[in-house]
Amino acid sequence: MANDRRIKSAVDLISNFPDVILQHILCFIPIELAITTSRLSRRWRHVWCEIPSLSFNADTLTAASVNETLTRYTAPNTKSFHLTITPYPENIPYIDRLIKFAVSHNVENLSLDFSSHYYVKLPDFFCNSSSVKQLNIDIGFSHMIVPEYCTVSWTSLQKLSLSCGRLSDESMANILSGCPVLENLTLHNCVELKVLDLSKSLRLRILDVKCTMTDWGSTQIVAPHIHRLRLLSSQSSSPTLVNVDSLTEAKLEILFSVKRYFTFKADFFQTVVLKMLEKLQNAEKLTFGGNCWNEKLYKNGESV
Question: Which spans of this chain does the record mark as coiled coil (predicted)?
Fold first, then answer.
């Protein structure tokens, strides 16, 4: 009996917290689970309806759960919205509706993880949002991240991360022209890009590029305004640095396959690494990583 009273007291203590604290706690669990708290008591019935962050996973989505969430959610603005789509075609009808819901609620931090889905295409209306400040898109290689014909208008976007999708020069140019206050750009294995021209992105200061796909082997990077650069590439996909004159900090990582690790010749260091070093000579802090730079294994570019 005493234990029951202590448990009841603990529950009452939590229920007495202000809504803003309870909603902050609910932000750390999927929305489907947050909704179930409405069954705890009358006090909890509407708490989840105004949580500032929403997280959806297609594994657990149903038409009923989507309808319930979008109908009962009453917060005018959404600070963070995360959507993960798994490789099941039946989940496709929910995508456009959920993205439109996030945009209409002035979302600031938007994350779309479609990396394991081969049939997803982002809706055209997604290219226009004045509220998004941070955007993460991880999509499959079967679709262009942003179609070339789309006019992008992400006027508040400060941080952009694009992963594992098709990204032509025209598409990249459309994105950059529509992001006038962009400060931080991350590109991870976005194929088809040949010229990354950031010369008109006057506020861009941080660039993070991961290009282990061979598609990046002939890519040129023009980034005269960036201060920090992280470049992770493989021997066959190392891009060419054309202009990075404002760099103060750079980290270079070049990866090799195990089978070829001890067979590199000096010409690779002369044509790739040394050219990069020449472009990075103004950086105040320069760091090497990966498995290519090891003084114990190499001497003048030859394995020893």
Answer: none
